[in-house]
């Protein structure tokens, strides 16, 4: 089945106001740049965004925060975005901060069809408020629910027209699980190839999970901050 669409605008044509979105990437690495820009153009409002990060002020999800299109963020790392901080402190933005391992596992469980799981992370803190707890082998655990989304939006290194995806390095941390946890999964790729050109043993997400795919353009591939000097 050919799942190719022309661009981000076509891929996002039915994203409504109030949608719950998962957006892949790790920090700014491997974020779906074309689709984020497409969401800005569409102007959809009241979004709930599930992402490892909140981008920076002028890039990534920071663009959607700037245009006030995000109502709620579920994230684990948000320390690089001054606009995020301003909206949070002013009460304009709902925020659910989730331990990074818990966030990754909640997404993974959704893709596996497991509704909930128990974790020790967050027990005895504000994160535990209102959640069921249970003791196992003398240790206390929180029950966390799986996270689902109306749309999972990811960026892969390579993909074929049937939706099979190959990621690179840290971009796999959240994107591979997110691609399995959305009701509709949209993938933008750096290289779009014909069926049979990807080594089956190297595929990270089978095409059965992907509904729409397109070849992205003009990737900036920014990083938050450089920590080593380039020679």
TrEMBL record:
Keywords: Transferase. GO terms for molecular function: succinyl-CoA:3-oxo-acid CoA-transferase activity. SMART domains: CoA_trans. PROSITE patterns: COA_TRANSF_1. It comes from the Bacteria. Gene3D superfamilies: Glutaconate Coenzyme A-transferase. InterPro entries: 3-oxoacid_CoA-transf_A, CoA_trans_fam_I, CoA_transf_BS, NagB/RpiA_transferase-like. NCBIfam families: pcaI_scoA_fam. This is CoA transferase subunit A. It comes from Chitinophaga agrisoli.
């Amino acid at each position: 089945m050919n799942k190719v669409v022309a661009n981000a605008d076509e891929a996002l044509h039915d994203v409504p106001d109030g949608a719950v979105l998962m957006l892949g990437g790790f920090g700014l690495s491997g974020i779906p740049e074309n689709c984020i820009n497409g969401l800005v153009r569409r102007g959809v409002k009241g979004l709930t965004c599930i992402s490892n990060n909140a981008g920076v002020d002028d890039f990534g999800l920071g663009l959607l925060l700037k245009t006030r299109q995000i109502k709620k963020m579920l994230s684990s790392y948000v320390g690089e975005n001054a606009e995020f901080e301003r909206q949070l402190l002013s009460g304009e933005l709902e925020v659910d901060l989730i331990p990074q391992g818990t966030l990754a596992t909640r997404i993974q469980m959704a893709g596996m069809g497991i509704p909930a799981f128990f974790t020790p992370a967050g027990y005895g803190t504000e994160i535990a408020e209102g959640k069921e707890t249970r003791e196992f082998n003398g240790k206390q655990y929180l029950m966390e629910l799986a996270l689902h989304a109306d749309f999972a939006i990811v960026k892969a290194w390579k993909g074929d027209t049937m939706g099979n995806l190959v990621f690179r390095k840290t971009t796999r941390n959240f994107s591979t699980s997110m691609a399995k946890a959305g009701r509709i999964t949209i993938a933008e790729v750096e290289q779009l190839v014909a069926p049979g050109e990807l080594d089956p043993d190297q595929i990270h997400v089978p095409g059965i999970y992907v509904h729409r795919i397109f070849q992205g353009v003009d990737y900036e591939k920014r990083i938050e901050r450089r920590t080593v000097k380039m020679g």
